[in-house]
Amino acid sequence: MLEHNNKNMTKEIILEQVEYLTSLGKDTYKTKGGGYPSYVDNLKFSRLKSGGLSFIKNVFTESHPYFKDFEENVSTNSPHDTQTAIGILESIKLEFERGWISSLKGLVAEEIFSDLIDMSEYFMSEGYKDPAAVMIGCVLEEHIKQLCEANGIEVTIEKGDKHIPKKANLLNADLAKAGTYGQLDSKNIIAWFDLRNSAAHGKFDKYNKEQVQTMLNGVTEFIARVKI
Questions:
Q1: Domain residue spans in the chain?
Q2: In terms of CATH architecture, what is 104-225?
Q3: Radius of gyration in angstroms for the set of CA atoms belonging to the chain, rounded to a whole number
Q4: 212 exposed, middle or buried (CB, 10 Å; 0-12, 13-18, 19+)?
Q5: For all residues of the chain together, what is the average pLDDT?
Q6: 224 Cβ partners below 8 Å, 6+ apart?
Q7: How many whole angstroms separate alpha carbon 228 and alpha carbon 224?
């Protein structure tokens, strides 16, 4: 049985569920008739369709391409749509088996970050280096915070009865000290945060478009390589 609305699904549970759905899809495909047009068993297909949509929504959210692809292309109880469902589910299984998606939290962050990076690239293409620099810096800072949380590093400092958020550069130093990434990455991150701060405080003459593009390329590569 699928566990719906489970926000703490492990990789093992996800693989178990996607294996179940893939098997259901293959069993459904075996029921195809010999006439034209050919159809598969409607009850089995309905279970495959509803189960697949629920599973993908819970793991990836409705905005993910997997969900949209499944919703749009797995609609009728035809052998073709059944094969499409199997293909999508096998792609999901492959991503998790090979570690291309390291965590569910990382997955959600990856999707959001991708949208923001796309927007930053658009700003750059239109010549708006300053908002691009701020946005890239925000993406980087959020990634750094989530890396800290994933590695058990506190993101706040206790002062009296309050918890004050740590500065981004301190979080960066903590991650480098913990060995999450090396000193070269840490130095690059310091430079990227400096550029972001200059943009955020209106010091637009402190950097140029080429430096923002280098920052965009570097942050994109760093996030893809150092996953949550």
A1: 11-97, 104-225
A2: Up-down Bundle (1.20)
A3: 23
A4: buried
A5: 85
A6: none
A7: 10
Distance from C-alpha of 21 to C-alpha of 93, rounded to nearest angstrom: 10
Q: Which residue bears the tokens 């658009």? A: 122
Region 53-78: mean pLDDT is: 86
Instruction: State percent of the chain over pLDDT 90.
Output: 44
The pLDDT tens digits for 103-154 are: 445 544 566 667 777 888 888 888 889 888 988 988 898 889 889 988 889 9
Altogether, the residues listed in the chain come to a count of: 228
Flag whether the pTM goes above 0.70: no
Q: Which of 65, 67, 45 is nearest to 57 (CA)?
A: 67
What's the token pair of residue 48? 């495959």
Which among 203, 175, 178 has a CA at the least distance from the CA of 190? Answer: 175
Q: Which amino acid is at 124?
A: M
How far out from the chain centre does Cα 89 lie?
17
Percent of the chain with pLDDT over 70: 88
